[in-house]
Amino acid sequence: MEQGVIQNFKIHYRKRIVRKVTTALGNNQSMPKINLRESISEISKAWNYDVTDGTIRNSFAKAGFFVSNENSASTEDEGKIALEELNKMRI
Fold first, then answer.
1. 8 A C-beta contact, residue 53 and residue 75
2. Contacts (Cβ under 8 Å, ≥6 apart) of 82
3. Distance (Å, rounded) from C-alpha 55 to C-alpha 8?
4. Alpha helix (H) ranges present in 27-74?
5. What is the mean pLDDT of residues 63-91?
6. Which of 17-26, 31-40, 57-66, 70-79 has the lowest mean pLDDT?
7. DSSP letter, residue 33
8. Where's the DDE-1 domain (predicted)?
C-alpha cells in the first residue's frame, strides 16, 4: 500500500474537503463544519469513486506482487496471479 494507494487516497480525500470549503466560502456561506459523519462520507466517496482499480493494480505491480498485463489477462486472472504470488512469498 505504501507504493501509492494511500497517498492517492489522501490526495482525493483532501481535494473533496477543500472543494467543500471553497464552495461554501464562494457562496458567501460560513466555514462548513466537518463532523465525523461528513468526514466518513467523504472518505467513502474518495475511496469508491476516486481511487481507481488501475491505481491499486499499478501499486501492487510496482511492489512486485504481479505483472500487470491488461491485454492478455482479465481482472479475475490478475487476482489469481496476485494470490499465487502472495502464497509463494509466504513459503
1. yes
2. 60, 65, 66
3. 8
4. 36-45, 53-63
5. 58
6. 70-79
7. P
8. 1-60
Average pLDDT score over residue span 22-32:
92
Residue 11: Cβ within 10 Å count: 14
What is the percent of the chain where pLDDT is above 90? 43
Rounded distance between C-alpha atoms, residue 84 and residue 67, angstroms: 12
CA distance 14 to 20: 10
Assign 66 a pLDDT band (cuts: 50, 70, 90).
low
CB 49 within 8 A of CB 15: no
- How are the residues of the chain apportioned to helix, strand and coil, as percentages rounded to the nearest 5? 70, 0, 30
What residue segments make up the domains of the chain, in order of their start? 1-67
Q: Is the dihedral of CA 52, 17, 40, 6 positive or negative?
A: positive
